[in-house]
Amino acid sequence: MVQARNKKTIRLSIQILTTYDQHGTRREKTKQGFESIEKAERALIEIKAAILDGNTSFVENDKLTVQQLNEIYIEASVTNWKPTTKRDHLYIMENYVLNVIGQNKIKNINNLVIQKKLIDPLITKGFKEGNLIAIYRLLNAVFMFAIKNEILDRNGFLRLI
After folding, report:
1. Whole-angstrom Cα distance, residue 150 to residue 78?
2. DSSP 3-state assignment of 53?
3. Which one, 8, 70, 86, 158, has least CB within 10 Å?
């Protein structure tokens, strides 16, 4: 369905029922801000094609935050970790990452967000390059886990450092 939201600026939005999850909750995908009907129709076709291909995970995980993704990652990985790995991961994520970008949706995380909200403030606090790389590697591991498990369909910050 393509709708005109504001006739003066001609901003369009699309909304499509995609699936019901295992709990019977209705899942919908919406996008807005299209400048022409053609662009809105193209986005609608792309969503429908992804659904027909069986790729509904991007809809189910559309509102997932970085903090929720980290919890899923820890739950899946903790059995393979040594106690010090778990302690280090929790410490770094809680003290440096989650308090800054933990409430952001994972679909909105990209190079610019990581650089401006996470890396730059740590540089101004005097963190060394090795510490920044360690923080980035932990965050990268969480997002790579999401990609491998089809929670995300891309890695938006692959080459940050």
Report:
1. 20
2. coil
3. 8
Strand partners, 3: 13
Element (DSSP H or E) covering residue 49? helix 37-52
Read off the pTM: 0.68
Tally the C-alpha atoms within 13 A of residue 85's C-alpha that lie toward its C-beta: 9
| DSSP output for 96-156 | IIHHHHTTSBGGG--HHHIIIIIIHHHHHTT--HHHHHHHHHHHHHHHHHHHHTTS-S--T
143 CB contacts (<8 Å, ≥6 apart)? 69, 106, 109, 152, 155, 156, 157
